[in-house]
Amino acid sequence: MESSKSKSTETLLAAVGASLERHVATGQRLLAGLSGGVDSVVLLHVLNRLAPARGATLRAVYVHHGLSPHADAWASHCRMLCAEWDIPLAIEGVEVERGSCAGLEGAARVARHRVFARSDADWIVLAHHRDDQAETLLFNLLRGTGLRGAAAMREAQGRLLRPLLGVSRVTIAAYAGEHELRWIEDESNADTRFSRNHLRHEVLAGLEQRFPGSGANLAAAAGRFGEAEMLIDDLAQMDLGAQAPEFPLDVAVLAALAEPRARNVLRFLLRRHHVGIPSEERLREALRQLVEAAPDRHPAVVFGAHKLLRRGRRIFLEPV
For the whole model, what pTM was predicted? Predict the structure, then answer.
């Protein structure tokens, strides 16, 4: 039993240490997302052991969504934990859009990332792990997303760093037990009315029983999809040629390409501007309208808060 516990510590220290080595330069500032749950508590505990060796500074942030009657108690727990470990903590209150088309989970995620965007940290360190990766892959595939959705989460994405993506939930729980850490349980995590909880408790748990190792295999597949996504991004930049990877875009660039490659260029540019794409079919139709329209026509295709608009021989991206 002792060797099993020691292995969990070895695994966590190795995973987080390797991630810091790959991405964090000496003296950089780390901001750890702390919810008070076991995953983020374990991550903060490991970072507090490893960050000083890199000369990195470590702070934590608790995002107070106000969605649970226990949220104030969770904030207090995080405050006491960080005081005990001598880690500066910020508690940030946010308003979550209740009627969001992304659902309550999606709206809460948007609110969190707005907090992260305001930070002056070099890295926002999040506690997503291997089981989360498998859930995200399956969730995205069921929503009909393309390769980017299948790629799920990357270890390093902009300023976001996820050093636990290769670590299982079981290993994280074992580490927490070994080090006698204290954490809170969010009651909403057991509510299978939420899509991700349904996948976790009803779907993935069943798959793991029938196909042992399925969670690890799904997470590994997400990593391979991520590599494929980087390759097709490289292809998009090659296909742009002398055209800067920005709008306005010359229609001739898209017209010279086979339809799948033209669609890939358009998808690549929209993603650079943080524009969500509802479906591949919608993207295909937008490409057809923008490329095939007569020069005196000005088709406009709306994607959420943005629209693609053709003027003459150029395609512009503008707010709606």
Answer: 0.79
